[in-house]
Amino acid sequence: MGGIYSYFYPESSGEITVVAQTETYQDTDRSREQQGDKNNTGNFLGESPSALGANDNIEDVDKFNVLVRCAGKTLDIDVFPLERIAVLLENVCQQAGKKRSTMKLVYNGEMLDESKTVKHYKLRRGNSVNLIHA
């Protein structure tokens, strides 16, 4: 019974532990204030969670493959949905051995804008994209 009593009502050694933990929390609050994060919103990078895409679905971070046709060959390229078309074009040209400056990507009869993302064009796993000389 004495062991249970001492668990709920610690001696002076237990109180020192509580004080040490309280000081630890105060130290982290001070370090946040020194970094300028006074209201403690956001993450460890100092940005709000929505700025980093925390509200996006898990589909948005999974890589998938897109088939790219070029000169009778079919290349299998892995892309992220939030990746720019310019990055996809760079990867395709590198694997095909073509100069990037003279090539364009076409999907469903539409020339892809390099500043847009893969998600914008609703490219999905296994879709075919054509690499053309422009």
UniProtKB/TrEMBL annotation:
Start-end of Basic and acidic residues biased regions: 27-36
Residues of the Ubiquitin-like domain: 64-134
Residue segments, region Disordered: 24-54
Annotated transmembrane regions: none
Highest taxon above the source species: Eukaryota
InterPro entries reported in the protein's UniProt record: Ubiquitin-like_dom (IPR000626), Ubiquitin-like_domsf (IPR029071)
Name of this protein: Ubiquitin-like domain-containing protein
Organism expressing this protein natively: Salmo salar (Atlantic salmon)
